[in-house]
């Protein structure tokens, strides 16, 4: 059991990120000192939201220049910390070279951060932002779990450099983290494994998270003909931040935590926006037919290969979220609120414009 001293600084890697922003907000509002590791501390546009939160809170934030691909570059930011949150990892479907753009930063970056953890004596606990992508590749995989649900005991065994490389990157990175934790006894590891994260962005004009890209496409007309009826888990970014917070400070937290609020699908996510935004934005109303997706899918999106469509279209997605609820006390916001709050932020910031 690890108790974390809140008077010590807490490191957050990937501090500019969508998920990290809400975690940092929670830490700052709790009066903590955050060591924010970012690639470019001079990029004021990417740090504006964090500085604003810091100036309205009792906590404080200090920036450190760090890159996942540079060995030892998190060591200075980690010095004096008992708790390390490792959230940094590229989340995009817009890549050319999956090895260089996804696998290397995820896997080598995790090893890099944890090598420094091994050297910095003050660290007691590391929380890694993994993903449900480290548990499954396709919605059909849910059927392999007890009662047709994904559980923390399952691992993704089908992703590869050629098939769903983002999922592969998250699987390799999380496995590496557990391997390195088992090789020592000073620090323990807890992983948060969120499903697809939705909800308000604190930095809507600066993020490149895939969560932003998908939500934007729901409102900008890209998907007005319809969406693929694909099973997916959804979780609110604010609930993901709560889970990270608990994973860090709850002495009893241990192992992996599936952090998913809703067993859903892309059509349900989109249509939940219809009542509030349907008259002003081209919200998709129907499911795209399978035959059409089979023909055009591979041309419009790298992920939509025929194999992917076969294994995900019209397949229910189910995960068991009881561990995070029971052990970390997490409850989940309603799907409609998550979708509406996220969409509203894009409208308020001019990312989406009414027709
Ligand atoms: N969003 C989801 O649906 C979801 C679901 C499950 C798990 N996750 C995980 O949550 C974490 C955060 O994702 P997100 O959605 O918040 O995406 P995001 O906004 O794109 O954040 C990614 C962060 O990683 C940093 N990063 C990327 N490459 C880096 C490198 N080479 N060196 C240092 N930092 C680097 C980015 O820094 P820059 O600002 O400098 O680019 C950014 O801060 C990731 O680990 C992701 O796999 C996300």
Protein traits:
355 residues; alpha/beta; Rossmann fold; 7-stranded parallel beta sheet; 3-stranded mixed beta sheet; 13 helices; globular; binds NADP nicotinamide-adenine-dinucleotide phosphate
Written account of the structure:
- The protein is α/β, with parallel strands linked by helices and 355 residues long.
- The chain has a domain at 10-197 and 234-260 and 317-332: NAD(P)-binding Rossmann-like Domain (Rossmann fold, 3-Layer(aba) Sandwich).
- Helix 1 (18-29) packs parallel to helix 2, helix 1 (18-29) crosses helix 7 and helix 4 (98-119) packs parallel to helix 5.
- It has 13 helices and ten strands.
- A seven-stranded parallel β-sheet has the order 3-2-1-4-5-6-9, sandwiched between helices. A three-stranded mixed β-sheet has the order 7-8-10.
- The protein binds NADP nicotinamide-adenine-dinucleotide phosphate.
- Residues 14, 16-20, 39, 46, 67-69, 87-91, 105, 129, 131, 170, 194, 196-197, 207-209, 211 line the site of NADP nicotinamide-adenine-dinucleotide phosphate.
Largest sheet, strands/sense/barrel: 7 strands, parallel
Mean pLDDT: 95
Assigned CATH architecture of one domain: 3-Layer(aba) Sandwich
Helix and strand run? EHEHEHEHEHEEHEHEEHHHHHH
- By CATH's scheme, which homologous superfamily of one domain applies? NAD(P)-binding Rossmann-like Domain
Here the CATH topology of one domain equals Rossmann fold
The number of helical segments is: 13
Strand content: 5-15%
